[in-house]
Specification:
Layout: E1 4-11, H1 18-23, H2 27-32, E2 34-41, H3 48-58, E3 64-69, H4 75-89, E4 94-99, H5 109-118, E5 123-127, H6 134-137, H7 142-159, E6 171-174, H8 175-179, H9 192-202, E7 207-211, H10 225-241, H11 270-277, E8 283-287, H12 293-302, E9 305-310, E10 322-325, E11 342-346, H13 355-366, E12 373-379, H14 384-391, H15 413-422, E13 425-433, H16 437-440, H17 444-460, H18 462-465, E14 468-475, H19 479-494
Helix pairs in contact: 7-10
Length: 495
């Protein structure tokens, strides 16, 4: 069965070029594939649409040709969104992006299609830079050649890619690849081309390239080079720092992460601090145990008995002594809370709807337990990066980090201590935790250096340089317990 191909032609004021561009498409394409040509006129000011109508009337029967006439100018990126949506909606296998001015050789569509299929790639780009010197020989202005090289170099470095050219508009996309990325969220201008590359890279789609000739003729460029360079570098940098949970943009959220709360036991973190604090053979309650990884470590390495509480049992992936599926916003399970040696609240209180009510409810359960120690952690919203974001007007929620979208409450050191003391607990120790560099950086050596640097700054200002807060607390004795002890002491000494 023939593959279904959409040749999507974007046009704007191309009355001089569009007919010749369409005529240069190799007839073999129509023979080898089930082909449709879709021409989109972006409200041209010249007679482009009249020429397109003439092409449609005179076109052969081997290929269906359709025309879009935008009621308002959609921009270069906006037009691509429409075409790719059309391709996805109509169940094509591949979509070819072709410019109506003929700058990119229509004769090579067959080669592009053959290569994307043989490489089993999500996209293939025609590159003017693969063959040394061909771009300049083809008439590319020297300043554009240099700018293209510089921008591509920095984009490759930032995104850890290896493309010869980020800025070619001659592309073929697999429809299966387009289905996996939110291209509809991209910009309507020329930044679209960079944004969709980033989406493909982040979604682990294979991108391949093949050399194409360079042709610069009478076509008119509508791109402001300086503004274009600025925009794409901003997008590239913005997307890269999203990996550090500093900035979040939904259009680059392309991976379906099953478990975004990763274990942090092998470096300075609330997880490692809690494990080190807990003594061997302890009885531990892990509230918000998630997948059970910490509980499993305590069981295997410290011979502890661990009871886990979490909202969803389906997230449990490790061995645990007992487990209770509980919505913390509603109630706590019926347990013998006086028997626990340690209670873990690691990255939990920021998720409950009413932390004050939850902590008071927990206090009532354990107020008579004089031996229990609670280990609590949460993000520090006064962290220096968050402060800088606020300085520039950003407060950007994402999928991880301090500004996790599931966080219902944010804390500073002072507000966390107020919550704890206001719930009748005593703060025994407060520790600042550095950024989880090992999670976002591949280099263990670099991560270790950065953690040490971060820890050094925490020594001078916990509030400013701590990524997270780790607090050891104990419940203050209840009035009932104090009264009972006072009565017993008098009876023992004087009666």
């Amino acid at each position: 069965m023939k593959k279904k191909i959409l040749i999507y032609v974007v046009t704007y004021n191309h009355e001089k070029f569009i007919e010749n561009t369409i005529s240069r498409i190799d007839n073999k394409i129509f023979q080898n594939y089930q082909t449709e040509i879709l021409i989109s006129d972006d409200k041209s000011k010249d007679s482009t649409l009249k020429v397109i109508s003439k092409i449609k009337k005179n076109f052969g029967k081997d290929c269906k040709i359709s025309v879009l006439s935008n009621p308002a100018n959609q921009g270069y990126g906006g037009n691509q969104k429409i075409g790719y949506f059309y391709a996805v909606k109509n169940n094509f296998d591949y979509v070819v992006l072709l410019h109506g001015d003929g700058q990119y050789a229509p004769e090579l569509i067959g080669n592009l299609l053959e290569n994307i299929q043989s490489e089993n790639a999500g996209a293939i780009f025609g590159s003017r830079m693969l063959e040394k010197g061909s771009a300049l020989k083809g008439g590319m202005p020297f300043y554009k050649f240099v700018g293209n090289k510089i921008l591509t170099f920095f984009q490759n470095k930032i995104l850890k890619s290896n493309l010869s050219e980020f800025h070619s508009g001659y592309r073929v996309y697999s429809i299966e690849a387009l289905k996996k990325i939110p291209f509809h969220l991209n910009s309507n201008d020329y930044s679209f081309d960079t944004e969709i590359i980033i989406q493909l890279l982040f979604s682990k789609q294979k991108i391949c390239e093949m050399p194409i000739p360079t042709y610069y003729g009478e076509e008119i460029s509508y791109v402001n080079g300086i503004y274009y360079a600025y925009r794409i570098m901003v997008e590239t940098l913005k997307s890269s720092i999203q990996k550090f949970n500093i900035f979040y943009d939904s259009k680059y959220d392309v991976l379906n992460l099953q478990n975004i709360y990763l274990p942090k036991e092998n470096f300075i973190s609330p997880h490692s601090k809690a494990i080190n604090k807990i003594k061997n053979n302890s009885y531990v309650l892990d509230i918000g145990c998630n997948d059970g990884s910490i509980a499993n470590t305590l069981i295997k390495k410290k011979n502890c008995k661990v009871v886990g509480i979490d909202q969803y049992k389906k997230n449990l992936n490790y061995e645990i002594s007992e487990f209770y599926e509980t919505d913390l916003d509603k109630d706590l399970p019926d347990l013998d809370y006086n028997s626990f040696d340690f209670i873990l609240l690691l990255d939990v209180i920021e998720h409950v709807k009413d932390p004050e009510a939850f902590m008071k409810k927990l206090y009532n359960k354990i107020s008579n337990n004089e031996k229990v120690k609670l280990l609590v952690s949460t993000g520090n919203v006064s962290f220096v990066i968050i402060r800088l974001m606020l300085l520039f007007g950003f407060f950007n929620y994402g999928k991880r980090g301090i500004l996790d979208r599931t966080h219902t409450r944010l804390f500073t050191f002072n507000s966390l201590k107020r919550l704890i003391k206001g719930s009748n607990f005593e703060v025994k120790n407060v520790i600042g935790i550095p950024c989880p560099f090992p999670i976002v950086l591949k280099s263990k050596f670099l991560s270790k250096i950065l953690i040490n640097i971060n820890s050094f700054f925490i020594f001078f200002s916990k509030s400013l340089f701590s990524y997270q807060m780790f607090v050891e607390i104990k419940p203050n004795p209840s009035l009932g317990l104090i009264l009972d002890k006072a009565q017993k002491r008098y009876s023992k000494d004087f009666e």
